[in-house]
Amino acid sequence: MATSATEMPTHLKDDTLTVCAVSSISAALANVLHEGVGHALVALFTGAQSGVISTVAWSSGYDSRLVAAGGTLVNLATGLICWLALRGAKNSSVQTRYFLLTSFAFNAFTGTGYFFFSGVTNFGDWQVVIAPMHPYWIWRTVLVVVGIAAYYGAVLAVGSALVRYVGVSLDDTSRYRRLTFIPYFSAALLLGGGLLNPIGIQLVWESALPGAAGADCGLLWMRYYISKRTVPEWGSPVISRSYPWIIAAAVVSLAFVFVLGRGIPLHR
């Protein structure tokens, strides 16, 4: 039986467990950068004496617009770094390239999606940032417009990078879906660890789930918006079974859910 040149033979599919492992580490990293670096460290360096960090929030008696904006800004900066690293990773393993791709995706989608989220819901980090700005309704509108434009740009960048630098052809529909759907559901499942947070379950519905299910939804439909002229610049072998990645993901996930998920007190 003949096999289409654009479809991968059945016995050469990417390993689901490794794909899940790589993307879980990427999702955990993006979350820790947002809460731990963007919020917690910024707060501790700018005036906070102590606080509690978890997978869903940084909580302390000290707050500022810079602390509120910090999470998003760190995600955007990290997304840019991952994109640049991915462009220069031609000789790296496909697992490493996929890690950079998913890290780029989670950071870029969280960073750009937060503008839209706060503008529409009047809740979250950027609601705090624009709270004292007038006329307030104009700034909310700006957040929505900027959020839509920035998120769309992130979708194009991530979707194109998956083709160009990971080597997944748009014609290979099943593989493209596999390498975008698995990260989406892996991140959503991982952030379910937020149920253990010390602040309360309400924050999971207000922040953690919108962050995972909402911000990362571009993974589910971005292939429809990528130009058909986008072609792989590098070849891509399948993502084979990698026990180092799987073991690392197990350790990271357990620590993320049962240690960070329960909250960690931090002090200056």
Protein traits:
268 residues; mainly alpha; 4% strand; 3 strands; 63% helix; disordered N terminus; 9 helices; three-stranded antiparallel beta sheet
Characterization of the model:
It is a single chain. The N and C termini lie far apart (66 Å). Helix 1 packs antiparallel against helix 2, helix 1 (16-46) crosses helix 6 (173-190) and helix 2 runs antiparallel to helix 3 (94-121). The protein has a 3-stranded antiparallel β-sheet with strand order 2-1-3. It contains 9 helices and 3 strands; from the N terminus they run αββααααααααβ. It has one domain (13-37, 64-195, 202-255). The chain is mainly alpha-helical and 268 residues long. Helices cover 63% and strands 4% of the residues.
Please give a quick description of this structure.
With 268 residues, this protein is mainly alpha-helical.
Strand order of the largest sheet: 2-1-3
Structurally, how many domains make up the residues?
1
Structural class, judged by helices and strands? mainly alpha
Indicate the mean pLDDT. Answer: 91
Rg, rounded, reads: 19 Å
How many beta strands in the DSSP annotation?
3
What spatial form do the alpha-carbon principal axes imply? globular
Distance between the termini: 66 Å
Beta content comes to: under 5%
H/E topology pattern:
HEEHHHHHHHHE
User: Are there runs of 5+ residues with pLDDT below 50, and where?
Assistant: 1-8
Task: Provide a count of the helices.
Answer: 9
What does the largest sheet look like? 3 strands, antiparallel
- Helical content band: 55-70%
